[in-house]
Model the fold of this input.
Amino acid sequence: MRRFMKWIGGLTLLALIAGAVVFFGFLPLYIEAGRNNVIDHDPYDVSGEADALHETLIVGDLHADPLLWSRDLTERSTRGQVDIPRLIEGNVALQVFTAVTKSPAGQNYEGNSAEVFDNITLLAIGQLWPLRTWDSLKERAVYQAEKLHQFESASDGRLKVIKTRADLDGMLAARAAGQPVVGGILGIEGAHALEGDLSNLDTLFDAGHRVFGLHHFFDNELGGSLHGFGDTGLTEFGRQVVVELEQRPVVIDLAHSSPQVAREVIEMTNVPLIVSHGGLHGFCPVKRNYPDDLMQAIASTGGVVGMGYWADVTCGDITPAGIAKMIKAAVETVGEDHVSLGSDYDGSVETAFDTSELAALTSALLDQGLSEKQVRKVMGENMVRVFRQQLD
Done:
């Protein structure tokens, strides 16, 4: 019997080891491969005119989530949609890398409770993030910032983390001199990472975060989410956070905030505001896309709205031609100075092209009748203007 029990114990240990290998070794990779796929497609036609123009552009993207995943961003990957080699191939000058810290199970655009199981907890454990991140949203934001700084150190000069206006101008000067370098700006997707404590803003700022989204898929201590319940506005704590953010060299992001929160932030601030990733309601009338008049109000602050690349905000067509059609509609609605790119790459979305293929979007914008000047603004100059104004 003792020998039998020892044999059973050995099998149990082997089963536990095998389960751990699957959970920690393969499951996160499998999940990412299914969530951040690029659909199979033939190479897109890019006109000679568009290709030549694209090489002269300052290209910027307001939102991508590759720091959430277990990938070395200094290497070109067969998974996901963003890494440094592909950013350089796509002639991207400036990429916002956003830290996702909480995402409710069953997330949808209609309504989510903050109390349901959090998918990011499982992902943090499965990818063997440091123990401090397993039960702290603040530490998850800090850890993802640390990851980007580590990639910067290992990038052989191909990545520069941007924290100041001088960093931004220096990176652009290096690119103009022919250096293949990408500027990375850190941000948080939802200020629940503050954990209800205003003093934690110092911690996140010191970690390098310069874009502060107020909400994600659920109501939080600051107020209502676009995907929460009741379109509630800012709480008193939310107002304190907004007042503090306005005084700092950062950019406030209204993506995922309730329309009421967005209106209240517009009323109480005098800085350019952004919607980092989304779509235009007049083009695709879904809840995820703010009403056009609210987008116009955000544009009136001097800010920008980032156009996303996934089907839920485009109402289906995610090809470069489809994204270009939405961008054209946005230019006509909010003005050529207030439209930018906001891919949501690696944010659990399916796309029709990755960041290395952005010349196809330039070509599609020209096909839509945008002028060279308008293409330059949309592809990055509008975004750079906002960050140059806000960073110190």
